[in-house]
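The record is passed on directly below:
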Amino acid sequence: MQRSRPAKTVEIAPQYRTFLRELLSFGFVGFVGTVITIGGANLMRAWLGGSPVTSVVIPTVASTLVSYLANRYWTFRDSGSDGSGREVVVFFGLNGIGMGIQVLITGFTYYTLGLHGGISYNIGLLVGLALGSAFRYWSYKKWIFTPAPA
């Protein structure tokens, strides 16, 4: 009769699993932020008659606050970052750049291309959000949620 051997335990998940978990979490947080941004932008534009640019800025600021809290305490919780004042300032600064990308795309669609319909407005929002989100993910990993120095 053969004796069974204990199974080897995996001490650390492979790096791709950590990356995948982080990317999916970031994507979910981004989805929530997108709902806040697009929903808020359309509400402001339709009900309050705001300009296309102002209608993007205010919901994006609200979305940024939600995104910081969710990314800090969920997506990048294992990064070793400390939640310092510097981290918050850099986060909001980089989000300002991401918001600038969104505003530029929205403004370009509305003012330069002259596309004033709801569908073109939302396509411009989505393109701006996609480009802004790509910048945000890269910049968060590079400058904000970095491993603590050893």
Q: What stands out?
A: The two ends are 50 Å apart (CA to CA). The helical segments are 15-47, 54-75, 85-112, 118-144. The chain has a mean pLDDT of 82. The first helix runs from residue 15 to 47.
